Amino acid sequence: MKFFILAYKNLKRRKSRSFLTIGGVAVAVAVLVCLLGFNAGYQEALTSDIDKMGYQVVVTAKGCPYEAATMILNGEAGLKFIDEDIYKQITSDPDIDKITPLLAQLAYDPEKMEGKGGFTNYLGIEESYMPLKPNVEIITGEWFSGNDVNEAILGYDAAESEKKSVGDKISIPGKDITLTIVGVFNRTGSQEDGTVFLPLKTTQRIFDIEGKLTGIGIKLKKIEKISEFEERLYPMASIQVISMSQVKGTILNLVNSAKILIMSVAFIAIFVAIIGVINTILMSVFERTQEIGIMKAIGASKLDIFKLIWIETLIICTLGGVFGSLVAIFGGNLTELLVRKVMPYAPGGKLLLITPELLLFSFLGVIIIGVISGLYPAFRAASMRPIEVIRSGE
Amino acid sequence: MKDFAIKTSKLKKTYSSESEKIVALKEIDLEIKPGEFVTIMGPSGAGKTTFLNLVGCLDKPTSGGLDILGCNPMELNEGKLSRIRVDKIGFVFEDFLLVSSLNALENVQLPLIFAKNFKNNTNPETLLKRVGLEHRLTHFPNELSGGELQRVAVARALVNNPQILLADEPTGNLDTKNAQGLFDLFRELNREEGLTIVVATHNLRLGHSTDRIIHLNDGRIEQDERLVK
Fold first, then answer.
1. CB contacts, 8 Å: A391 with chain B
2. Considering its fold, how many domains does chain B have in total?
3. Which of B48, B49, B82 sits opposite A391 (nearest CB)?
């Protein structure tokens, strides 16, 4: 029999209490892993989303640039319109490498999601859209046959969820128009996977907004030139230039502020877990006063008792760490679902990035916590005098 | 080898509380030879347990000299005292003091965890067999009778092959038959292995089965009686 077995037997003796304490530690670890994982994942997903967008700069109607950016990232409609003429004016700018007009629209479809109803995003595009999107390609079918034809290309998920393929017909709710599906895009992992793409002119005609756009996507020859480019567009009163890297920075800043708040909550959870561990071990030390006295009487040194109690704490924390990590790994998807529901903008891809390094970090953290929380109970136990237990004989 | 296992000179122990000072032992001068089987007798409060606790390195004297197998506990720190307890002394208590969550075998194994010198051990199972408990190895303390519990406690006290066995009222919770059985076991260990045994008891009849009876009263040696066998 070794110290470890003895410590394990002690914990096993008080099963429900040990289990609850391990649960407390596990929750704290899971929260920590999920939060840190979320932070890393969100940053990566956002960066990848913005990179996949292909545009470095978006021109939209004047308003809140971040709202506009969020809408564009989400593939949402609802943006104010700008005149198509502006597109024609900007196209000749010397700093522009690639440029494409965009017209996002939204329609409520009562049949969507198996009768539950939902919004469908429509994006009016031109052929210039494709060079800006190096990761987008048509996997089945082909590009529109003209600029103003009743045809649609579906995003991967849109085709999947509607169970439509090339040659099928779709209609836009509330509009007396039937569109023929001519192509399906590949999966990009971005919000556009759920979008229905139409030729720009068709979109303008169907939604009765001739000559209007909701945005212009631009890739500059050199991103450093953005301020000069912005300055040149400044005289156009009705538009604003949004740099996606700025948007990224701002969103990350917002997420970071939220993170600090959530981290404080996580630290409270960890603190409560520590108190729980100390309480459990201390209680068991007090309950075992006689037992510890016996052990000391038959030769256990202070260090032996200290070790024994410390090992108990470490077992609790290690098991808590293991269960917490498992909960974080397997319950992470649930957290992701929750986060997606409450976040105003959640990028595509995985939000929760749980890496081995993160797990190791959290695990080491919990071991250190265990070592610290075990100190006081172990010290109390080690300081007990055997004589006080034995003296009952006299 | 010294000609004594335990030697005390003017050994004194006082306990102080806020209101009073109790002198439990008053200048005890005593020598116990290696291999002696000694009984400490006396009424309650005579100082028997205090004496055994001092000899067992569970407590430190207030003044006087104490030599246990060549060591002076008064000069040793707590760590070294626990080393003496685990390596050289076996202790049997009136209330058995077994760990309730461990079975008989594990209770006997317990001192081995704390002993650093593994070479000097007796196999716990062999010991339990010797005390007649080979059929009770996996039984927990609440499944054992008083006599069996005390025999487990004796096995535990012997597992590190101590040179001195101390027993404080070991028969206090036993019936006559079990009490006699325990003393027979002590006698056997004393004869066969030369173990020095010091037992505190109220039982005069059992005391007479040992080599020597030291009568304590009010913290003093009243009579030191060597029994001729």
1. 49, 53
2. 1
3. B49
- Residues of chain B neighbouring A294 (CB-CB closer than 8 A): 97-99
In a domain, B6, yes or no: no
ipTM of the complex: 0.88
CB contact under 8 A, A393 and B91: no
Judged by CB atoms closer than 8 Å, whether chains meet at A6 and B115 is answered as no
A179-232 pLDDT, tens per residue? 999 999 998 877 788 889 999 999 999 888 888 888 888 888 887 788 888 888
Q: Would B11 be classed as within a structural domain?
A: no
**Chains A, B: CB contacts under 8 A, how many?**
92
C-alpha span between A306 and A310 (Å, rounded): 6
Note the pLDDT tens digit of each residue in A292-304: 888 988 889 888 9
Residue B139's domain comprises 34-60+76-226
Residues in chain B whose beta carbon is closer than 8 A to a beta carbon of chain A?
A: 44-45, 48-50, 53, 56, 58-59, 78-79, 82-83, 85-87, 91, 93-95, 97-102, 106, 109-115, 156-157, 160, 168-169, 172
**CATH number of the structural domain spanning residue B213:** 3.40.50.300
Spell out the residues 6+ positions from residue A249 whose beta carbon is closer than 8 angstroms to its own.
none
Residues of chain B contacting residue A289, judged by C-beta atoms under 8 Å apart: none
Select the residue of B87, B93, B160 nearest A390 (Cβ to Cβ).
Answer: B93
Which residue among B78, B86, B93 sits closest to A393, beta carbon to beta carbon? B93
Q: Which residues contact A298 (CB under 8 A, 6 or more apart)?
A: B85, B86, B91, B110, B111, B114, B156, B157
CB-CB contact of B91 with B85 (8 Å): yes
pLDDT in tens, B49-93: 899 999 998 888 998 999 998 888 888 888 888 888 888 999 998
Q: Is residue B13 part of a domain?
A: no
A384, two tokens: 């007990």
Question: Phi and psi (nearest 5°) for A283?
Answer: -60, -45
DSSP B100: T
Position B10 in a domain: no
